[in-house]
Please model this.
Amino acid sequence: MRAVLALLVATAFAQPTAASQVRNFFAPEMDGARIDACLHTGACGKPAADAFCRAQGYDRAMIFQREGFASTRVIDSEKTCSGACTAFRQVKCFTTKSDIAGLYLE
Model:
């Protein structure tokens, strides 16, 4: 019984685990324009933050903050907003992909 338990414990610690990566994007932009907090479908907040993170190579957004801004670009289209727009102030992205570590240096 001890041998089986020892083997299970050793196996659990020997298996590689996926490394997670987190990155904060402050005042995120794409192509020089601030990112709108809504998608072209009208879905706002988390869906737009997730789309931004996926475009950067991450899995999803962990947190996000919004603020008013004069002009923005919608992440999933070429549509823009001018005037009273809502942009992301911050988006914190997360992934379990281990190959992303060398892509984005701060």
About this structure: Residues 18-98 form one domain. The longest strand covers residues 80-95.
